[in-house]
Specification:
Elements (H helix, E strand, L loop, with lengths): L11 H17 L9 E5 L4 E4 L15 E4 L4 E3 L8 H10 L5 E5 L2 H9 L9 H7 L4 E2 L8 H6 L8 E4 L3 E6 L2 H24 L8 H13 L32 H4 L1 H14 L2
Parallel strand pairs: 6-7
Antiparallel strand pairs: 1-2, 1-5, 2-3, 3-4, 5-8, 7-8
Helix pairs in contact: 3-6, 3-9, 4-7, 6-9
């Protein structure tokens, strides 16, 4: 009917097992607390499994999961889907090739989302290749139609987004790929925080180095992720801000954006 290769979809059983494993990893990593977060996995062009509302993602069981269609109608299961299911459905509508989505609240990345700072500095080769740029979607009230509308522009061009004052959303060709991108996103945010303020120095990749990494990514079959902002050519000196020295007027470093993120995160850590 859709001319798709159905072999690329997991079976119902494998999809549910993958969702449960991702939920356990998210909970163990402190990417979600209480009943936060949600996970989905398509098992056909028009159906998917999703996590329920009101359940810790670290303690889900097989029978708690719900099968729905792309309109959100329940096909199998007795529990109620998360109100944020519509965010996942919008991803699949905008990019039908995708198979899975993961939504979580990893603390450092969420701090960047609260500060409105995109993860777009070329500081990690792995980040450029596996993840790419992570933009900040405009603030939207959780559970409303505003959320899917806010992420729609990024679903075909990026591998994930920060949700302003909320958390993060990643997607991929399997639940594990979507989850691994969430791990990469949080690590990217953590390293950006450390180099941007605590250490105060970051040797950013040159434009030529970024170009080569993007070329490598394309050869790997990854055509999404965008291109991180580079600020100097090979052989030139990096900008003073990236080196921890006095920053140009109006730069993010001067404005204290990264510093505010650090203070927010450290306050949370010290308060535990």
């Amino acid at each position: 009917m859709y001319g798709e290769d159905l072999d690329r979809y997991l079976s119902d059983r494998d999809a549910k097992e993958a969702i449960l494993e991702v939920g356990r990893r998210m909970y163990a990593k402190n990417y979600v607390v209480s009943n936060d977060g949600n996970i989905t996995c398509k098992v056909s062009p028009t159906t998917l499994w999703t996590t329920p509302t009101g359940v810790s993602k670290g303690y889900m069981t097989d029978e708690m999961l719900i099968k729905v269609d792309l309109e959100g109608h329940v096909l199998q299961g007795t529990r109620k889907p998360s109100s944020e299911l519509k965010m996942h459905l919008r991803v699949y509508k905008e990019n039908p090739d995708l198979i899975a989505c993961v939504h979580a609240h990893p603390p450092v990345a969420t701090s960047f989302a609260i500060a409105g700072i995109a993860l777009d500095r070329p500081i990690l080769p792995e980040g450029v290749v596996q993840l790419g740029v992570v933009p900040v979607a405009p603030y939207a009230t959780p559970g409303t139609q505003e959320v899917p509308d806010s992420i729609a522009p990024y679903c075909r061009t990026h591998n994930g987004v920060l949700l302003a004052n909320h958390g993060a959303l990643t997607w991929g060709m399997s639940p594990m790929q979507a989850y691994m991108r969430m791990e990469s996103l949080e690590y990217y945010a953590l390293v950006t925080m450390y180099t941007g303020n605590i250490i105060g120095r970051a040797n950013e990749l040159s434009c030529e180095q970024v170009d080569r990494l993007v070329e490598t990514r394309t050869k790997m079959g990854i055509t999404t992720g965008g291109r991180p902002k580079c600020r100097f050519a090979a052989g030139d000196q990096p900008s003073p801000c990236s080196q921890g020295h006095a920053c140009p007027s109006g730069s993010p470093c001067e404005n204290g954006e990264v510093a505010s993120v650090v203070r927010s995160v450290m306050a949370q850590i010290q308060g535990r």
